[in-house]
Amino acid sequence: MLEKILIAQPRGFCAGVDRAITIVEAALVRHGAPVYVRHEIVHNRHVNDVLVAKGAIIVEETDEIPVGAVAILSAHGVPKKVYEEAQQRSLQIYDATCPLVTKVHGEAKRFHDQLYSIVMIGHRGHQEVIGTMGQVPDVMLVESVEDVEKLEVSDPSKVAVITQTTLSVDDTRSIMEALKTRFPEMHLPPRQDICYATQNRQDAVKELVKHCELVLVVGAEHSSNSCRLRDVSLDAGVESYLIPDKMGLKREWFEGIQTVGLTSGASVPEDLVRGVVDQIQEWFSEAREEVLLVVVEKAQFALPKELVGF
Question: What is the rounded end-to-end Cα distance, in angstroms, of the chain?
Fold first, then answer.
């Protein structure tokens, strides 16, 4: 019989996601509806649905936005060409790119100017990777150790590495070691380029699995950090499922389980986590809640000055 729901802390919204959502809400207050969001503001359907209900219109491409409209760039960042397209359409842009991602964009530009060959560790097709690789030409993407062996560079002594911020140190370790072996003089990315929230949430799951027979991760299938939280649990030998909300729960998962761990991805609002807890307690009224505190997060990112006070 289920006895405990152990809830990881930290979980859910990170500072970058919180900032991005607040930018959309503040822009709606300042300008009124509609405001246009290029690509999902964050990778969570519930969050995007709430913003759409308030007057946001989500589009995939810049040419879908009316000339002169208010437009917001998603937290994942965009290629350089998107800013040029926005200027051509006289859009009033608010950039919701996470400041950690913006920092990596700056590094890519600096390395390019210094004539380095730039290697990016990341997932092909992820919006952040598309945005970062679109800052300068000829960035080479590696997703595996095998990809490292295929790299061709003009000067092995002038190689610089950047990473997708939503990969943890653990996620990049084997690829980074392979790169160091091939290019001993390569310029390493600062550890601060790894998103603090990604690392903290994975560290919390590593603690969670020590006390649970089952771990549930609330998050979207296309959310890189949410999927990785599930993988961390599975890698530790603990059964784990990724669910979008309480509707993804299956009662049979809890057979023979005494303690279930619960966490959520960085784009997940707390009300979805509460919904999961409520559903579990509806099935198992004796199950008590307990929080497993691993790290206290204090990070905050400032809003664009034009939106302060809205």
Answer: 49
Q: 5-25 as b/e, with b when 16 or more CB fall inside 10 Å?
A: bbbbbbbbbbbbbbbbbebbb
Strand 159-163, strand 239-243: pairing: unpaired
Residues noted as catalytic: 128
- Examine domains 15-98 and 100-193 and report if their fold is the same: no
The fold of the 4-13+196-293 domain, in CATH, is Cobalt-precorrin-4 Transmethylase; domain 1 (3.40.1010)
What's the CA gap between 227 and 244, in Å, rounded?
11
Query: Residue 206 and residue 8: Cα distance in Å, rounded?
Result: 10
Report which of 223, 301, 214 is spatially closest to residue 268, judged by C-alpha positions.
223
Specify the pTM: 0.91
Residue 37 and residue 72 in contact, taking contact as beta carbons nearer than 8 Å: yes
Instruction: Indicate the fold that domain 100-193 takes in CATH.
Output: Cobalt-precorrin-4 Transmethylase; domain 1 (3.40.1010)
What is the CATH number that goes with domain 15-98? Answer: 3.40.50.11270
CA gap 207, 219 in Å, rounded: 19
Assess contact for 169 and 194: CB atoms under 8 A.
yes
- Give per-residue pLDDT as tens, 9-49: 999 999 999 999 999 999 999 999 999 999 999 889 999 99
Residues 207/210/211/215 CA torsion (nearest 10 deg): 70
Kindly list the domain boundaries of the chain, sorted by start residue.
4-13+196-293, 15-98, 100-193
